[in-house]
Structure formats: structure tokens, C-alpha cells
Design a protein that fits this description.
By secondary structure, this protein is mostly helical. Helix content is about 55%, strand content about 0%. Helix 2 packs antiparallel against helix 3.
């Protein structure tokens, strides 16, 4: 897979760019609401599955969306509740 050089991109910029899968170093994991994004995507995919007539897949995707709103096993419930309270 080759990297496409954009006209505004200097060749030295290519070597400094991080892969898109990594957040910028200055930001923390809390700045990226990954679980909320996954939950939202699962709900959208569930609607698509239902539209396509696949009720079983829709229910599985809705279950995944519900799970995304539960506390993460590697974080305390207090930390999770505080984060949710800050958004409200």
C-alpha cells in the first residue's frame, strides 16, 4: 500500500505523520468517546439490518449498543459515573 502525496504536503511531513488509529499524544483516552461511538454505530447498523429483514442481527447489534453504555471492566464504576455526570 503506497502513501499518496497531497499537493500541500511536504515529503518530510509523511515521515512525521502518525497512523490514524493512534490519537494525538497531547490528548488522553477520555477525549475520545469510543464506547459511545460504537454504541451509536451499533444502533445505526441495527436499523440497517432490520431494514434488510435481518431481525436477529438487529437484536444482536442492539445488545452490543446496550453493552457499550455499561461500565468498562477495567475502570471503576465511580470513574464511569463521574465521566457521565460531567457530560450532563
Amino acid at each position: 500500500m503506497s502513501h499518496v502525496v497531497r499537493p500541500s504536503e511536504h515529503p518530510s511531513e509523511q515521515t512525521r505523520r502518525k497512523p490514524r488509529s493512534e490519537p494525538p499524544a497531547a490528548e488522553t483516552a477520555e477525549d475520545y468517546p469510543v464506547r459511545e461511538y460504537i454504541g451509536g454505530m451499533c444502533m445505526e447498523l441495527a436499523q440497517m439490518a432490520r431494514w434488510d429483514g435481518d431481525e436477529r442481527l438487529a437484536v444482536l447489534l442492539e445488545t452490543a449498543a446496550a453493552r457499550s453504555h455499561e461500565p468498562r471492566p477495567d475502570r471503576s464504576e465511580i470513574g464511569t459515573v463521574e465521566r457521565v455526570a460531567r457530560r450532563a
